[in-house]
Every structure is written in C-alpha cells, then in structure tokens.
Amino acid sequence: MPSSRKMVVGGRDGVVSVQLLLLPPLLLLFLAAAGEAQSSETEGVSVLINCGSNSSVTFDGRNWTGDSSPGFSNNLTLTSASPAAEVASTDSALGPLYGSARIFTGGLNYTFRQVPAGNYFLRLHFCPFAFDYGHDVNKSSFGVAGNGLKLLGEFNVVDEVTARLDSGSGSSNSSYLIREYLIQIGSNGLVLEFVPSKGSFGFVNAIEMVPVVVDRLFADSVSRVGGSGGASVNLSRRGLETVYRLNVGGPEIQPRQDSGLWRAWKVDTSYMINPDAGKEFKNTSNITYASVNYSSVAPLVVYETARIMTNTEVLEKRLNMSWKLMVDPGFDYLVRLHFCELVFEQSNQRNFRIYVNNKTAADNFDIYARAGGKNRGYHQDYIDAVSSKVSTLWIQLGPDTATGAAGTDALLNGLEIYKVERNGNLAYTGKHGTSSKGSSSNARTRVLLLGIGSGLGSVALLGIVVAFGFIFRRRLKTRESSDKKSGWKPLFFNEAVLNSRGSGKAAAGGGKNLNGSLTGPSTRVGRRFTIAEIRAATKNFDEGMVIGIGGFGKVYRGEIEDGTLVAIKRANPQSEQGLNEFETEIEMLSKLRHRHLVSMIGFCEEHNEMILVYEFMANRTLRSHLFGSNLPPLSWKQRLEVCIGAARGLHYLHTGADRGIIHRDVKTTNILLDENFVAKVSDFGLSKTGPALDRTHVSTAVKGSFGYLDPEYFRRQQLTEKSDVYSFGVVLFEVVCARAVINPTLPKDQINLAEWALRWQRQRSLEKIVDPHLRGNYSPESMEKYGEIAEKCLADEGRSRPMMGDVLWHLEYALHLHEEWLRANSSDDSNSGSSSSVEKSSANAESLEGQPPISLDVDLGLEGSREPESAGTDVDHRDRNRTNSTAE
Questions:
Q1: Does residue 413 contact residue 338 with C-beta atoms inside 8 Å?
Q2: Which residues of 506-541 are buried (b: 16+ CB within 10 A; e: fewer)?
Q3: CB 355, CB 395: distance < 8 Å
Q4: In the beta sheet, which residues pair with residue 353?
Q5: What's the pLDDT tens digit per position in 471-497?
Q6: Are 325 and 271 within 8 A, CB to CB?
Q7: Residue 749 covered by a domain
Q8: Which position among 67, 400, 665, 724 bears the catalytic label?
Q9: 547 is in which domain, residue-wise?
Q10: HEC string of 701-730?
Q11: In the chain, what percentage of residues exceed pLDDT 70?
Q12: Counting beta carbons within 10 angstroms of the beta carbon of residue 762, is it exposed (0 to 12), middle (13 to 18) or buried (19 or more)?
C-alpha cells in the first residue's frame, strides 16, 4: 500500500524545484523494469510514473515508479510558491495505481529529459477519490500542455467521469479516467505542464509513455470524406487524442491483451443507435494481417469478432448499423475502421457503403478485395471535420444494393476515433449536453462514495445506501404527488395565432361563421370551446362516445350545439408524447387549410385540459376499408380517387408553405374518409418543417411506423419530402393488396409488404397479389401504371424517387385509363362512379352508428394514433443527447 503521509514541497523565490537525480546504472534498471512487457513492434521502452508516491507499485503486470522515490530520474518542478503534495486513499478497492495522487494549487512540471526522441502514446491517469487535503475534488479544474501542445483546458475530472456514467459509455473501470495522446518528442525530451485554473487546484494519479513506431500506425496524410476542405489532411508531426477505441461485436480487450501498445478496447453496443441492427459474429479460423506493417495497428483479437448487419425481413436489409459518438466541436477527426472478411471466399461477395457524419465515405466497399483475401485484418482511415456547433460524430454502414453482390450486409470489426490537433491545441473548454452541471449530481455522489473507504465496513456502507435510497424515494414521491396535483400546464398560444383570449363561442374581435369557428385574425386556430361545451358535446366524456384510443389519450365522437358532428381529442396529462404532438399539431394546423387535410375546428384549454376539436370523418380510416373490419371493400375507382386525394394533400404540404412541411407518418390510418369518401390526411403530431433553401434535408430523430419508414431516413437520420414519398409508396401497395404492411404470421418472404409487393411488381406480375375483391374489376393498363409509380416511390435512395406532384400525375393518369376501360367495356363496375359512391358512403356512415369503440387498428386516425404490431410498429429512435446539422 502507498504511504498515507502528506509531503509538502516548498522553497525560495517563488520557484521551487525538486531535482531527483539517478545514477546511470539505476536508470538502466528503471527502464528495463518499465519495458518488461514491451512488444517487438515498439522502439525503446515505456516510462511509467506512479504520482504522489515514494514507492513503486505493480499494475497490469508492469512496474510503476513513484515520482518522489529515490529511483526517479526525472525533474518534478513547481513553477510557483504554491505547494504540491502527495495524497493517499485508504480505499483498497481503487487498486495500487489509483491509491495515491499528486495534488497542486500552483504550476507543476514533469520534465522527461532522458527519454529517447520519437513518437509516444502519452496517457494521463485520473481517479477522483476524496482527498484528505482540504480540497473538494468536485471543484478541481486545471489545464495540461506537453511541449507547448495544449492537451487539456479547464478540465474537471468529475464532470468527465459523470458524463461517461450518464451516457452509459462507462465500463467496469468507470471510476477512473485515462486520457491518451499521440505526441512527438524531440531530442530535448518532454515537459508536461500542469496549471490549475484560477482559485482551483489539480491532480494526477499516473503518467504513462509508451513508444510507438508511428510509420506503422498512421499514414502521413488521410483523405477527407467527400474531399471537403481540401483533398487530404497531413498528419505528420501533428498531435492526436484518442477519443474512442471500440472492439465492434466483441468483448472488452484489456491493455495487457493489446499488441504491445497497452491500449484498451471497449465494447461498442452502448454507442449504437440500435444494437439489434447488427449481430455479433465470432470467427474460428486463424487470422493474419493484410500487411506485415499492420501488426501494431490492432491486436488480432479485434479481427476475430465482428458485427454484421442483421438480415431480417421485418426490419428490411436496407437499414444501417449506426454508431453515435459524442465529440468536441470544432476539430478534425480521424476515423479508423477495422475490417476482416470472415465469411466469403472471394471478392464481390460482400459490398456495402460507409457513411461518416451522414456523408458517403465509400461506395461498393469490398473487404475481401481490399485486404487481399479472407481472414486478413485490414483498416481504412478517413478524416472529417465537426463544426463548432455540433458535438456528435456518426458512423454508419449499410448495404449497397446497386452492385449486384451476393451479400450486402455490412461488417465491421473495430472502430477508432482520434481528435486531430488544430493550431497547437487539442483542448476543448466548452460544455457538452451529456455532462452538464445540472445532471451530474448523482454521479458526483457516486464519486464521493469512493472516498468513504473500506474502513466504514460493509454494514455501515449498506446503511448509508439504504438511507440515501429512503430519502430519494420520499423526495420522488413528493415530486410525483406534486405533479399529480398540478397536472400539466396548458399550451401557451402565441398572440400571433390567437390574437385574443375570448370566451366560448367567439373571441373578442371575431365573428362566428357557419362552422362556429372564429373569423378575423384567429381564424386559423378556430373556436375556443369552454370545458362545459366539451362535456355537453361528449355527454360528460361518456365512454360510449369513444371512437379511438392512442398514446395521447382518447378521441370522442361529439355533437356541438348547432348539431355539427365533431371528433374531440382529449390529451392524457401523463403523456409527454401527447403534449409534444399536440403542440406540433397546433403549429401545423394554424398554417394549413386544404380540402384534403383534416381541419381543426377549435380547442379547449380550461381546467388544465388540452382538447382539440376536429371535423368528424364519417367513414373513418382508409385502412378500415381495406382489411380488419366488416366494412364493404372499396372499388378500384374509389381506391384510386382516395389515393389521388391523399397525394394532393401531401403535395400541398410539401409545396404550400415557404419551406414545406414533411408529414413523417404517412400510413393508411392517417388517411381519413369523409361522408363522401373524400380522402383527408391527418395526424400532424410528428410533422417537421422542411429544410431551408441552403439545405437538402433536416437532421432529426427517427420517428414513424415500421413498414412505412423510409430506410434512407432510418439509416442517415436525414429527413426530406422523399421520406413521405416512400411511405406513400407503401400505402399504394397496401391499397392494392389489402393486407397489413407487417405481418409476422406470414411466411418469411411475405412478412414485409413493401419487399414482397416489390418483388412481384419487378416481375410485372402485380395482378397476382391484388385484393381478391378487385380481380376482374380493373383496367390492366391502369394497374400497370399504378404499379410503376408505386415501385418508383420505394426506390432505396431518395434522389431516385419522384416528387409528390409526379406521383399525383401518374395516379390521375391511372384513373383516366380505368375510366376509359369502364366506358369501353360498359362494365357493371361503372356503379363505382361518384354518384353511387355517395349512396354507398351514406350507407356506410349509417352502418357505423352505434358500433363499439374502435381499437388502434381501426380508429379515427387523428394525431397520436398508433397501429398494433401486425399493422406497423412505431419507431422512435431518439438521440437523447444529440442534434446534427439542421437538428430539431
């Protein structure tokens, strides 16, 4: 155990130097001990310093020499009269290397004069145990520089440990922190400068220097992704900081298992957006390196395991494996991807694409061809810049279906991210969202518990934990009780939208039109209902009036005082999702008016209620007329007219506003039918304003419904109008096939409607899978044109899909062909014309009267409604810490 004493170092003239000399024979012994485990791939030997101690310790099988021991040859210098001290912890659980620290309130230098010139991995070790020195470890803040290269600035170890704990990226060793740098040392050695922030202090537990043959590890220059900001970046003589080093698809690799450079490789799953998108794979054959010079790039164990894209019909093979990594803004980053083909025996068998920060880094990437064979370890480097406003780096791998390769499932073995020095600086002094002060109190409590020590005994420690849990539980109950009493606050309506705060039937300054809504400045939002009027319309929220249930709450059928039927959506106060979607619905509907969009009649915000009132759609959802109910099926002409109406509504969304609006949840339950079977698009709770003129997309969290979800949006988090086009293409196939878009009970090749229908359409055999109710009652030419535009909507890449205006034109042409066929054949199918449609709609409306409340698969389809698993499962891959580009 290290000594528990304190040693204060002092001197004259404000500059204090402790020069610990070592005779050459002893120096040789020290270097030999440090280099015992050194690999032949490194030149020279490691320097291992145990800070704040006068004795040596063994850690990771290596000997670490105390910085104040007689055998330490390097200079330890104080650059001010402020003292430095050794502090020790009595907690044996920290291990021998982290049981002591050197603490300083003034400048502190470590000078390594006798270290041979060359490149080194410099590692600084920090463990924030409770110092017995009169300082609060949580308030420590300091900077570090090495030979003038700024490594850290205003660095708070506790905040950094907290960020890792809160993000879930910490490992079994989360109580301590290691910062790793690649630096070049000249003939004058290395001077490490530690400077505390004003009024604060700093500390360090250990310093490690491992020599590197840099020519075997890094190229002199690396190409930028997309060639932005210059074709390549020169890395020679530039410092690097290791940000992430991940063993993808495999277990954590300890430093002693590395190829002589003592690197730690973490598990990748906590950084994946969806770990299920890639399955872990372990190889049983012998692995070799693609080049003899690669032996120090990564240990062979990295290439023995991999993560391969999940091949599933339900999630579609076209979805990406995605890793989201928090980084410091305003720097270039070197991205190193490790590959080893573990399955295929020849080239052009596995081809995929690589994306870095949503930019294509490589098409048609063939591991076998690049590595020169199977079971050969290979790596690929890229450079990309992260702007000063972005703190995330995205790495994504997905299939390249255009190559015709036998396999398109991407594979990755390892991932490394290095920050590149910029103008002599690697330090970042800003704050990340994941490590904010406000969110760190719990983790800081964990840090302080490290200082309790084993002397308390397990019983005492258990008592503290139980007491803390009891207090926390009481506070939580109090807060929950308070929340239940207060409910949630009503939405604040902007004066530009409401312009007045009138009472129930009309707001001041606005007259009442035939629909009972406000005229004048507040027409866009509509009538402000009183809670009494809402209760009267719904018979005091009678359960018999419920016509739909969703995550937001319930939808009631209502009748206001003039006899108008309405749909009344009442938010559940406990649903944060519902509240957010209400706000979006208000924002969108205040801007929009179109025959093929559902209209909002008004709202109510009294008594902590949030209620929206819509026009009543007598014939419910499009889906309810396709399957899942006993309603009469629609004719082909009716289906075409409904699709045309929905396309008109979406076309208006995309083009009617300055920046357009992207619906983001197009599906058959969000297309409603009025008493005349006029289609109206509904549910704007997930909608987003389109990109600005100088942007091609909106970067945002993925939301929508499986089966309808644009795979390009899913894998790149880039939302465009073409995402709606893809979803509408799925709707088109659902309309013609009259089956659920996802049905796990079917054979594997039929589970996913989009993929199944596309296979038939590409064979020009769509007629073989049409709804049996349609057979013999449609124009073959019309069906052919319909299938062609549906296929184009489902193109894998958004740029290959048509605009919604083009989709509308093709559907109208398909209707024209069908009507010509009807006239030419004088078929009985002409009964499906518009006049008979009205008669049928009236009959259908009457048949809906008195039916029991509908479930999510046959609901009103208003905002918040979600389908059951068999009809499309919701996706909400929210990035809890992120935003990118034009992020939401």
A1: yes
A2: bbeebeeeebbbbeebbebbbbbbeeebbeebbeeb
A3: yes
A4: 398
A5: 334 433 433 333 333 333 333 333 333
A6: yes
A7: yes
A8: 665
A9: 495-615
A10: CEEEECCCCCHHHHHHCEECHHHHHHHHHH
A11: 66
A12: exposed
The residue among 882 and 289 whose pLDDT is bigger is 289
SS3 124: strand
Output the six-digit token pair for 267: 């598990």
Say if residue 178 is in the same domain as residue 286.
Answer: no
**714 plus 838 within the same structural domain:** yes
Q: Could you report how far apart the first and last alpha carbons of the chain are, in Å?
A: 53
Position 607 scores a pLDDT of 75
Same domain, 16 and 134: yes
CA 32 to CA 44: how far, in whole Å? 10
Residue with token string 């290395």: 190
Tokens of residue 141, six digits: 């803040």
Catalytic-residue membership of 665: yes
Task: Establish if 446 belongs to a structural domain.
Answer: no
User: 876: which 2 tokens?
Assistant: 């909400």
237 plus 182 within the same structural domain: no
Domain count, the chain: 4
Digit-coded pLDDT (tens) for 682-707: 888 788 776 644 455 555 556 668 78
Looking at the structure, tell me whether residues 536 and 601 fall in a common domain.
yes
Residue 887 backbone zone (phi > 0: left; psi -120 to 50: alpha; other: beta): beta
Helix (H) or strand (E) holding 64: strand 62-66
Distance between CA atoms of residues 441 and 313, nearest Å? 44
The first and second tokens of residue 880, run together, are 């809890």
What's the CA gap between 757 and 740, in Å, rounded? 12
Structure letter (DSSP) for residue 826? T
Read off the pLDDT of each residue in 426-455 and give the average, rounded to a whole number: 46
Q: Binding site: which residues?
A: 569
Edge-to-edge strands, sheet with 8-9? 8-9, 84-88, 100-104, 202-204
Q: At what angle do helices 636-655 and 834-848 cross, to 10 degrees?
A: 90
d(CA 110, CA 108): 7
**Whether 622 contacts 668, CB under 8 Å:** yes
Does the global pTM surpass 0.70? Answer: no
Query: What CATH number did the domain enclosing 727 receive?
Result: 1.10.510.10
- Nearest-Å Rg of the Cα atoms of the chain is 33
pLDDT, tens only, 356-395: 988 889 999 999 999 999 999 999 999 999 988 888 999 9
Annotation: binding site for ATP: 569
Q: How confident is the model at residue 728 (pLDDT cuts 50, 70, 90)?
A: very high
Average pLDDT, the chain: 75
For residue 840, being part of any structural domain is answered with yes
* Whether the predicted pLDDT of 878 surpasses 80: no
